[in-house]
Amino acid sequence: MLSKVKISGGGRCNVTNYISDPDIFSSMYPRGNRFVRKAFYQFYNADTIEWFESRGVKLHAEKDGRMFPVTNNSQTIIDCLMNEANHYGVEFMMQSSVKQINKSESGWELILSDGRSFNADTICMATGGGNKLEHFQILQALGHTISPPVPSLFTFNLPGHPITELMGLSVSNATVKIQSENLKESGPLLITHWGLSGPAVLRLSAWGAQLFAAKNYRFTIVVNWLNQEKEEQVRFLFQQIRIQNGSKKISATCPFELPQRLWVYLLTQSDIEDGCRWADLSHKKQNQLIRLLVSSEFKVEGKSTFKEEFVTAGGVDLKEIQVATMESKLQEGLYFAGEVMDVDGITGGFNFQHAWTSGFVAASAIAKKLMN
Ligand SMILES: Cc1cc2nc3c(=O)[nH]c(=O)nc-3n(C[C@H](O)[C@H](O)[C@H](O)COP(=O)(O)OP(=O)(O)OC[C@H]3O[C@@H](n4cnc5c(N)ncnc54)[C@H](O)[C@@H]3O)c2cc1C
Q1: Would you list the DSSP string of 137-176?
Q2: Which one-letter DSSP state was computed for residue 344?
Q3: Is the whole-model pTM more than 0.90?
Q4: What is the Å distance from ligand 1's center to 315 Cα?
Q5: Alpha carbons 343 and 340: distance in angstroms, whole number
Q6: Which residue has the higher pLDDT, 194 or 308?
Q7: In what order do the strands lie in the sheet with 321-322?
């Protein structure tokens, strides 16, 4: 029960994000940003913080905006949610899943995998994401359109590439873009045993989730190790260095905030010998070094999950859901919450915030309907 909450945020549960502007907050959702923006009118991050605090769970924000329980332990969140469920007498049925949902005269009939069946006035589908269409079969059978599910939030594999020998190194602000596509992201970039990771890569994987799936995770990326720096700016800088530091060894005088081992790697890839001095750097080798600094190309072949933290891009088409209630526009009495919908965010607490928001909106609407 709540197994994903348990392992979320590296066992700390990144409950939400501190960004206060809903426009900025909703821009963190590659799919569903306009939908969540509207839903935030009913339940936003401040409501999440208040909801947990009023139940004895204080949250704290880290510098990058991610919010965790002050205990830094996801069990605190699980205990809080379970207490609340017990308080309202929620009954859990474990070890069986819902196989089928039928419309009945009074509402709904649910058929479980162990053969049992139940009647319900309303249903809230909060079955999460799944990378196979079968996961959404029950909803397709009820007439809902499913945007094809594909994984989001992954790292890029560069099998056998020499850069992977620098595993563990990170650059604080690099830009990664996809060749021939209008997709790019900046931020910390991490070199791993398998390829490239870090926030810049994870965010790019989210924005391009469908494109990368269509390319079968084979595409070329271009890395600017100097973030936005342009070729001409670097060339100008090199001219100055050659005048001021001509007698110094290039390998010992990296003019950028790059890890020394990465600098040496880029020099080696540009055929610049270890003892070469700035004054002796040939134009050809200088051009090659500048090219590698601002536009190193890598052929990505495959993906890996980042700390097993992934979400599904795709799910129930948002055009078929009323944002004010989370009720299906096709089936009265059928509601949705969480990742089952075609909404997904980048890392940083955005996926849980969508789950809390849509869960709150759906539950409020169901309660109102049943009271009427
Ligand atoms: C390792 C990991 C770490 C993460 N960390 C974070 C984080 O720190 N912050 C963040 O914002 N997001 C995080 N995420 C994403 C976040 O966990 C999900 O977006 C969120 O859990 C979605 O909630 P949900 O209720 O929609 O679905 P889920 O949490 O996936 O829950 C769906 C539930 O429905 C059940 N179910 C499915 N089908 C059926 C069926 N037919 N019958 C009965 N039950 C069914 C499942 O067993 C499951 O219990 C993480 C994801 C992973 C995988």
Answers
A1: HHHHHTT--EEEEEEESEEEE-TT-GGGGGTT-EEEEEEE
A2: B
A3: yes
A4: 13
A5: 8
A6: 194
A7: 123-125, 334-336, 327-328, 321-322
